[in-house]
Amino acid sequence: MSWSMLTPEEWTAVRLSLRVASVATISALPLGIAIALLLARGRFWGKSLVDGFVLLPLILPPVVTGYLLLILFGRRGPVGSFLAEHLGIVFSFRWTGAALACGIMGFPLMVRAIRLSIEAVDPRLEQAAATLGANRAWTFLTITLPLIAPGIITGMILCFAKAMGEFGATITFVSNIPGETQTLPSAIYTFTQVPGGEVGALRLTIVAILIAMAALLASEVLARRTNRHLDIE
Amino acid sequence: MTLVVDIRRRTGGLQLDATFEAGPGLTALFGRSGAGKTSLINVIAGLLRPDEGRVAVNGTVLVDTACAIHVPPHKRRVGYVFQEGRLFPHMTVRQNLLYGRWFAPEATRAGDFAHVVELLGIEMLLDRRPARLSGGEKQRVAIGRALLASPRLLLMDEPLASLDEARKAEILPYIERLRDESRVPIVYVSHSVAEVARLATTIVVLSQGSVVSVGPVADVMGRIDLFPHTGRAEAGAIIEAILEGHDDAFGLSLLRSQAGLWRLPRMDLAPGSRVRIRVRARDVILAAKPPEQLSALNVLAGVVSGIAAAEGPIVEVRVDCNGEAIIARVTRYSVQQLGLKPGAPVHALVKSVALDRRSVSGPLRTGMDGDDA
Q: What would the pLDDT profile of B296-315 be if each residue is shown by its tens digit?
């Protein structure tokens, strides 16, 4: 086998990472937009507390976040046992748990990007829409959402990239099970721990670089397209 | 149609306490900056809540604090043309224009698209985006967008304030057409005497949040006691005249008003057209005796009907010329020298060149009261 070909196990790790990061990003999006709206427009007591709580995963050591997830969402954790009993959703030692950990780690970056773009929208445009007969929901869908589209794209890309690279929280929460929870970073880590694993680690490193570059390029292209759409020079 | 406003609102330093009724045509809310004009129309649009009071259009109640009624802005069908246009940047001009249509009830969809587009002269702009429009074009699109939402009332908040003179001149005729051709009553906020004189049917003078005067524009503008509120520099009377004919040899137009015959630089209007001439007080000279051998072409005989009480060197004098008011701004010294007092016969002189194109409105299609059919 050539040194440049990925082994089936390595392919599995790459595919799993892409799936985990995609699911994490897409599931985080609705909540991310809602929280960003709340933080950008809401006026309520304890707003800075919510703001701080959202930012927490960015500041805490990832291992701490992973351990908290383990306590809360583990089989015997209060949330985890409830979800397993009533909804049949299990996070611990499953790829869904990896997606949860990655989503939580990427969430602050997503919220921040979307929040900034919401704050840049002129609320007077929304007033204008109201005088033309649009209620709040329509105004959001036809005015606010298209105007914050670039921020949403940026937020998604940042969250996706963070999820692809997430290691500490994931390995603490769902361990490192090949085929189930062994994502790309965990696989690289495993390779570095065994003799003769350098080639495998290098191959996966190149894959990681390629995926990161592709995500960056995609965000560039999308941003340019939406900017042209908005006619901003 | 009638708009009934009777509201009180306290914000920051401004105490808004306004009561007035407005009929068809264009009602100007006039006053200095900070007089509460914009707050007042924001209350009518539903963007601000009054502390107490009532707003109704054609009998439909929009606000009545006594009955705890506050119709939200999107259900009021009150069109609003903002000072800065506020076009949606992510939509083309066509999409902007059609935005309000989605929400207008089918039965009330007034004015077909083509008619409004033609009225405002924006055919060429439909596929452009707002970023590619000039200031004047943006405002015309904003007017069209508000109109196509089939409003029962159109509010305009200093729509010309951010434009230069040339752009203003470009838009004024469209607003005149709107006033005369569409059935939608307009409330127009302005601090410019020139705009109000040209456009308004009725004028509401606001000062520090309160209504100082309401009435037909010529009556209100002819009152010298209101100058402290309306601003002195641009003050002047408004004359309604009919074009009698042109003097092509000298490039003049002849007009007749109640006050007498006027000669103005030639304007491109057909004989029989009704126009409104704004005669600024500072352009009027008074003479106690009939003057002879004079370059000023407009000499109107009248009687002094009022002299504003003033401490400073300058005084406004109101002259009644056969029932029409002309206001002159002269020195207190001259008043004394000429012996001017109420009842004294006097001649008002106005240079034709002072009455340039900008002092004259476009043709008024109907009388002062607009089209109230």
A: 889 999 999 988 877 788 88
